[in-house]
């Protein structure tokens, strides 16, 4: 009873009780659903883990057996009785397979699992214990036919049958996994359906409960609402509560009854006061109208002033013409209350800004600037209005006749010229005369701003032009004022000051002079020079040379010239000229003269001296032979020096010829070692070869010259003797030769200059050693001509290592070429499609020397028919053929569409540089004329060496990134 009364006294308690019931019901439902889902998920994961584990073990067995089969087949197909690599790989899988079968046997649960395991154990015993050992034994004895018979008599069939069983078992496991997942999804779906059903039932119960409570509340509230409405309508009523409720509605009804009675009692007093207030209100409304009119006028003037200020700020805060024009048209449109507007400059660029006008409309106006309405504005220089009927676009959704008013305003400069035109448009609202006068006043402000921008643009163009001219000068130029502050610099000067990322303009003297002095050798002398010419006015001492240190070692010569305007000195022009090259050339010339004089005079002195002795004295035969031997050796030395000079001259003139052939580099090195070892007793020369691929494509004599120069240097610059090591090895696609000595070594700062003509390390130890400084230059040029390079690593006092690198040729080129010829019945056919008969003859000679049979065609159609009939081993193809009809592009496209011909290597030989297109169409390589014919034969040979005549690709040499 008490609880019932407690609940009746408050709606909040009733709704609270209902809310608690809903929350408890929903929690119970949610917990039940979560417990059900957890149970389903646990069952699914357990079953899934078992199936996934078995599927993984089956996959491992599948991979193990397949690897064993593949390695065994590879041994029987490509191996030998000596090479057991594939056999060891196959037998290494045996243990893994056995362990896999054992694991699967432990995890077996079903009859299918047991049957498959039994089958796997039987096959495992058959293959590894019977068939494989027996086949290996027969293969090692050379009885390959018996191995084939075993395979044909059911061995291969058993393997294929077991592979099928193993594959089927895997697929069954995968199907069970899918079924398990589908069952899991179905059970989850059923649980969700049940959850939704109970949830909707709970909502229905709540809905019915709420509806019953609202009915209990709705009736009394309706009565209260009706009574309140009657009171609001001015009716005199007294509300009586007949519900006798104990809750909030009962209290509200009682209070409302008292309120209605109180209102009725005070109504008469309020009516009297209301009449008095009405009279006061009429008076206040009259005053409000007057104040509103004054306020509107004040706001209008305030808005006008704001827009004027905005216009002034917009045209004053920027010197970018386009920004100013955009600001003008936007602000004027707001100020004029125009619907759209445009301003166009009448200069050569015809820059404009618009708002509310399409591009086509703007273009139409710009195209007719000097005729029609604009021409009238330019001639009269007076604003005018054009009234016209609105277009369909301007009327929008209105279908009645309306008019549009266009206001044309000229922008007149101080020289009374029309600089720009402004056009503004209003819909159905004309412009008043006083408004036009205000707008013309604003146009004068616009004219002033445009003139200011015009002057700025002219000065900026002059400044940029001057700066561009200065930047093209190869000397660093500074313009400083009388106080030494920088007024202007060019890019070259920034480079000299190492200030590419610094703002050097306006830097005072004490800052830029310190920055410059930090880069030179004699800082104090440089600072003293600039103090003299800038501050002390010394116009006689106007040249100075300084040396920059650091990474960029340069020699700079400074020229200074004062700048006068009338009789007043306004600044100083300082020119910094980089004379490093001239300085180095002068230095090199001096060193060259000294070196050549020494190197030539020494053998000449010996020749002249011993010749004079032989002419003026009677000498014994043995003494004559000794003197003649000395004269011969010194003459050879002179010849070598002269040949070095001539070689360098020919290389620089690109007239050096090379007779490149496939050569083994090891015999070349041994010949040089034999010659050099005889000339020394202090050095031990050792040769180590770490590779069998020692073939190169090169000029035998020039490569010998390279090795001889490097080995001579190694001996010469190891005056105390020591070991000299020569190592031949492969590194990626490159064959390298290291020549290492234990001599003087080379300073780090001299390594970059070592391959420069006539350069020698400035060191007393080395000055005692003869040389012209040309040997390494010749080495570098020869290596570059052979598509190789020469590099150096050195440590002072510990020795140096010179490394020469050649493109690697796989195997012995001559033997490979003979193999290609023998495999093709003595013929390797090449068809050349070339309309230049001289070039065709040159290519034919080159290819025939490489043992190719060559046919030449100048007509594209004839060549295409011959290719289809002959099916050559390679095609050399020109693109642009003189005769009209079939071009090289057409031949490539047609050949690539024929299955039997599309694999023929095609080498494009053309003057057109369209390499990307040629390679995209399927060409093997693209040679741009002119090129060396030997390069073509090399490309064809290397391409054919990668391919056997059964269409299988051989393994080429690869670098560390896997590239051929």
TrEMBL record:
Coarse class of the protein's main subcellular location: membrane
Coiled coil segments of this chain: 159-186, 260-297
Gene Ontology molecular function: ATP binding
Cell compartments where the protein resides: Cell membrane
InterPro entries recorded: CheY-like_superfamily (IPR011006), GAF-like_dom_sf (IPR029016), HAMP_dom (IPR003660), HATPase_C_sf (IPR036890), HATPase_dom (IPR003594), His_kinase_dom (IPR005467), HisK_dim/P_dom (IPR003661), HisK_dim/P_sf (IPR036097)
Keyword tags: ATP-binding, Cell membrane, Coiled coil, Kinase, Membrane, Nucleotide-binding, Phosphoprotein, Transferase, Transmembrane, Transmembrane helix, Two-component regulatory system
UniProt domain HAMP: residue ranges: 215-268
Positions where 4-aspartylphosphate occurs in the chain: 878
Name under which the protein is recorded: histidine kinase
Organism, as annotated: Metabacillus fastidiosus
């Amino acid at each position: 009873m008490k609880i019932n009364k407690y609940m009746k006294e408050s709606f909040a308690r009733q709704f609270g009780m209902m809310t608690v019931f809903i929350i408890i019901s929903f929690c119970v439902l949610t917990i039940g659903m979560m417990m059900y889902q957890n149970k389903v998920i646990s069952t699914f994961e357990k079953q899934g883990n078992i199936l996934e584990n078995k599927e993984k073990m089956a996959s491992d067995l599948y991979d193990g057996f397949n690897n064993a089969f593949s390695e065994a087949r590879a041994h029987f197909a490509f191996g030998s009785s000596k090479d057991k690599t594939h056999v060891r790989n196959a037998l290494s899988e045996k243990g893994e397979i056995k362990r896999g079968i054992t694991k699967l046997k432990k995890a077996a649960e079903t009859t299918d699992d047991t049957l498959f395991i039994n089958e796997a154990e039987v096959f495992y015993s058959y293959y590894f214990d019977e068939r494989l050992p027996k086949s290996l034994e027969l293969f090692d004895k050379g009885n390959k036919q018996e191995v084939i018979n075993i395979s044909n008599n059911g061995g291969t069939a058993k393997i294929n049958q077991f592979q099928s069983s193993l594959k089927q078992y895997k697929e069954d496991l995968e199907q069970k996994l899918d079924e398990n997942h589908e069952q899991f999804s179905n059970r989850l779906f059923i649980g969700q359906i049940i959850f939704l059903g109970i949830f909707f039932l709970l909502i229905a119960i709540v809905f019915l409960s709420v509806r019953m409570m609202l009915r209990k509340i709705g009736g009394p509230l309706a009565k209260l609402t009706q009574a309140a409405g009657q009171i609001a309508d001015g009716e005199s009523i007294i509300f009586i509560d007949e519900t006798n409720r104990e809750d909030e509605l009962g209290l509200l009804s009682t209070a409302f009854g008292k309120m209605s009675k109180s209102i009725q009692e005070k109504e008469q007093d309020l009516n009297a006061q209301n009449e008095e207030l009405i009279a006061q209100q009429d008076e206040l409304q009259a005053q409000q109208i007057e104040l509103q009119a004054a306020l509107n006028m004040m706001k209008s003037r305030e808005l006008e002033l704001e827009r004027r200020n905005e216009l002034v700020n917009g045209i004053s805060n920027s010197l970018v013409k386009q920004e100013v024009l955009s600001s003008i048209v936007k602000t004027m449109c707001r100020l004029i209350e125009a619907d759209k507007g445009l301003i166009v400059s009448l200069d050569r660029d015809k820059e404009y800004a618009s708002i509310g006008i399409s591009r086509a409309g703007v273009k139409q106006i710009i195209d007719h600037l000097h005729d029609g309405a604009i021409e009238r504005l330019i001639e009269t220089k007076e604003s005018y209005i054009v009234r016209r009927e609105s277009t369909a676009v301007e009327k929008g959704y209105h279908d009645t006749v309306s008019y549009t008013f266009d206001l044309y305003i000229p922008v007149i400069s101080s020289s009374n010229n029309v600089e720009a035109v402004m056009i503004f448009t209003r819909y159905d609202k004309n412009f008043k005369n006083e408004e036009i006068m205000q707008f013309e006043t604003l146009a004068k402000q616009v004219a002033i701003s445009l003139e200011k921008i015009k002057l700025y643009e002219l000065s900026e163009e002059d400044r940029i032009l001057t700066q561009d001219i200065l930047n093209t000068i190869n000397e660093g130029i500074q313009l400083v004022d009388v106080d030494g502050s920088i007024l202007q610099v060019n890019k070259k000067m920034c480079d000299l000051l190492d200030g590419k990322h610094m703002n050097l303009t306006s830097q005072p003297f004490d800052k830029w002079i310190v920055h410059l002095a930090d880069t030179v050798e004699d800082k104090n002398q440089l600072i003293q020079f600039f103090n003299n010419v800038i501050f002390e006015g010394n116009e006689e001492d106007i040249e100075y040379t300084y040396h920059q240190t650091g990474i960029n070692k340069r020699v700079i010569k400074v020229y200074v010239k004062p700048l006068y305007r009338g009789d007043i000195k306004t600044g100083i022009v300082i020119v910094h000229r980089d004379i490093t090259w001239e300085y180095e050339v002068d230095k090199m010339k001096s060193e060259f003269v000294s070196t050549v004089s020494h190197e030539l005079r020494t053998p000449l002195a010996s020749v002249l001296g011993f010749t004079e002795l032989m002419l003026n004295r009677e000498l014994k035969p043995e003494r004559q032979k000794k003197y003649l031997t000395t004269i011969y050796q010194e003459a050879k030395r002179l010849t070598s020096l002269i040949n070095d000079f001539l070689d360098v001259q020919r290389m620089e003139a690109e007239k050096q010829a090379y007779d490149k052939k496939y050569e083994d580099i090891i015999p070349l090195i041994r010949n040089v070692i034999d010659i050099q070892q005889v000339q020394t007793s202090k050095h031990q020369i050792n040769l180590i070869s770490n590779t069998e691929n020692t073939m190169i494509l090169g000029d035998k004599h020039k490569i010998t010259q390279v090795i001889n120069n490097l080995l001579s240097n190694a001996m010469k610059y190891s005056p105390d003797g020591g070991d000299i090591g020569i190592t031949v090895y492969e590194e990626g696609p490159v064959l390298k030769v290291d020549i290492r000595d234990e001599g003087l070594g080379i300073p780090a700062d001299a390594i970059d200059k070592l391959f420069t003509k006539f350069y020698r390390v400035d060191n007393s130890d080395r000055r005692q050693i003869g040389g012209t400084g040309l040997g390494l230059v010749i080495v570098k040029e020869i290596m570059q001509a052979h598509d190789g390079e020469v590099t150096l690593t050195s440590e002072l006092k510990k020795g140096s290592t010179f490394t020469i690198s050649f493109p690697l040729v796989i195997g012995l080129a001559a033997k490979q070429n003979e193999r290609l010829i023998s495999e093709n019945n003595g013929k390797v056919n090449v068809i050349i499609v070339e309309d230049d008969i001289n070039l065709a003859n040159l290519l034919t000679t080159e290819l025939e020397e490489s043992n190719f049979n060559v046919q030449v065609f100048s007509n594209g159609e004839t060549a295409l028919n011959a290719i289809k009939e002959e099916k050559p081993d390679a095609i050399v193809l020109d693109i642009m053929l003189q005769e009209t009809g079939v071009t090289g592009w057409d031949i490539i496209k047609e050949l690539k569409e024929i299955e039997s011909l599309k694999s023929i290597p095609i080498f494009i030989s053309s003057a057109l540089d369209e390499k990307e297109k040629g390679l995209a169409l399927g060409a093997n390589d693209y040679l741009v004329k002119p090129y060396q014919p030997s390069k073509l034969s090399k490309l064809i040979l290397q391409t054919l060496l990668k391919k056997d005549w059964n269409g299988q690709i051989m393994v080429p040499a690869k670098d560390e990134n896997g590239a051929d």
